[in-house]
Amino acid sequence: MTPRKPAVPAEQEALPEPVAPREPAVPAAGRARAWHAELAWLPGLGVRGDVLIEAAGDRFTTVTSDVGRDIVPAGALRLPGLTLPGLANAHSHAFHRALRGVTQAGRGTFWTWRERMYEVAARLEPDSYLALATAVYAEMALAGITGVGEFHYLHHGQGGTAYGDPNEMGRALIEAARRAGIKITLLDTCYLSGGLTADGKAQPLAGPQLRFGDGDAAAWAIRADALGADEHGLLGPGARAGAAIHSVRAVPPDQMHPVVAWSHSIGAPLHVHLSEQQAENNACLAAYGRTPAEVLFDCGALGPRTSLVHATHLTGRDVRLLGESRCYVCFCPTTEADLADGIGPAGSLASAGCLLTVGSDSQAVVDLFEEARRVELGERLATQERGNFTAQSLARAATIDGHASLGWPDAGEIVAGALADLVTVALDTPRTAGTQAAAALESVIFAAAAADVRYVAVSGTDVVVDGQHLLVGDVPAALSAAVRAVLR
Q1: Domains of the chain (ranges plus CATH)?
Q2: b/e sequence 194-232, b meaning 16+ C-beta within 10 Å
Q3: The pTM is what?
Q4: Distance CA 128, CA 141 (A)
Q5: Fewest CB within 10 angstroms: 268, 299, 336, 430, which?
């Protein structure tokens, strides 16, 4: 049966085709440049004024605060507003962007939403995926995101037939990030079964899911190897490889070890969807007599390079296992709210020793300020107390901890030696006007929006200037054309 196509608003048909993307500039080795930030958030120091930030090539060299405008080096770019390290989107499914708005009519559950998602997955091919992902990553750049973790499981052609290059879809995502000017960690995902029934029986892949599977984890590892990562996991400038176990409902415990071993072989991050829905927990208990977190622990999948995504429905023992394993936990609050998942125990996880990160996941919105503040706002709703997470801790989740969870520990800080990624947020918009310097970070984290981003540099190269993307040009037109091509 041919899946029903989601309706396309008629007014979209009149939108112009996007401008052809420009080639990203490559910073010359050692090329020096400088920025003079009105305010900047610096590690260990907080917000400082008149900060001179200097770089050579793709790395910061010196960072000095309280540098008067009269002594700033000639050619330094003035950055009015609050300048932060580049933001890290630790969990993304780029193709879900085509569903924005389409799934909001009527009622439903996570599981009914998933069927609509499968309809989109059934239509994508390498060229259409390249166009869509380029536009989505450009939208991320406009929102201040300089690095993305793409949780990638749409591997094969129709019916599960491999492309001539079995990694053609993954390479399309890497190219999309390059065109949009941001870094990517391609979290190549093992996805072997269609789920668990309520009584714990594994279901075979079917329909669009056939495109996700490699047969078994050994075959997955062979295909992942063919991506060509070096011994440090790098796939090329601004791109690195990571591994992912989709979930305990999609990868049986006896298939997890090859994925974990592959991630260890190149020191790659390992990401897993964990306990997003209570039904997943119930089926896992029926199948294995253990919670999803316990299954992952017993399979050796938990550790300081592991990120657990969602972690919404956890037991007290689950929280202790994750904390003692020093895992990252990635919260995606706008998606978790959109899909009616629930509110995860962020405070308990942080207290147990987990580092928190944030992601846009289904692209219900692309705004990491919103994701970060919703971690605190969700905790307020759950505990009926304010001030569980400071603006500083939420900013870390969206920057240094997010980048580290994606295998970029040298990103996410404005400090000598770090990758020269910057995002500047305007403080004169309707949302941020009236901000006082002493509370600038609080104003941005708790009130700013992606639309307030004015400037973005990635590895020392300008990507967004005055709110305009320099490489893709007309990002709304690119998004409209790409989404229209998928939904028609």
Answers
A1: 32-86+414-469 (2.30.40.10), 87-405 (3.20.20.140)
A2: bbbeeeeeeeebeebbbbbbbeebeebbebbeebebeee
A3: 0.93
A4: 20
A5: 430
* pLDDT tens sequence for the chain (488 residues): 333 333 333 333 333 344 455 665 555 557 899 999 999 999 889 999 999 999 999 999 999 999 999 999 999 999 999 999 999 999 999 999 999 988 777 777 776 778 888 889 999 999 999 999 999 999 999 999 999 999 999 999 999 999 999 999 999 999 999 999 999 999 999 999 999 988 888 899 999 999 999 999 999 999 999 999 999 999 999 999 999 999 999 999 999 999 999 999 999 999 999 999 999 999 999 999 999 999 999 999 999 999 999 999 999 999 999 999 999 999 999 999 999 999 999 999 999 999 999 999 999 999 999 999 999 999 999 999 999 999 999 999 999 999 999 999 999 999 999 999 999 999 999 999 999 999 999 999 999 999 999 999 999 999 999 999 999 989 999 999 999 999 98
- Rounded distance, CA 53 to CA 207, Å? 52
**β-strand partners of 420:** none
CB contact at 8 A, 445 and 370: no
Beta bridge partners of 357: 330
Q: For the beta carbon of residue 99, count every other beta carbon within 10 angstroms.
A: 23
For tokens 């400071």, the residue is: 390
- The pair of structure tokens assigned to 440 is 């600038």
CB-neighbour burial class of residue 142 (10 A; exposed 0-12, middle 13-18, buried 19+)? buried
Residue 358's nearest CA partner among 342, 334, 337, 381 is 334
| Cβ proximity of 486 and 10 under 8 Å | no
DSSP reduced 3-state for 94: helix
Give the closest residue to 80 by CA, choosing from 445, 451, 466.
466
State which H helix or E strand residue 113 sits in: helix 110-123
> DSSP alpha helices (H): ranges in 143-216?
168-180
Q: Which residues contact 159 (CB under 8 A, 6 or more apart)?
A: 210, 211
Tokens linked to 411: 């990103």
The C-alpha atoms of residue 158 and residue 173 are separated, in whole angstroms, by 18
Q: Which residue has the tokens 């969870």?
A: 405
In angstroms, the CA 322 to CA 176 distance is 33
Residues annotated as catalytic (active site), given as ranges: 310, 361
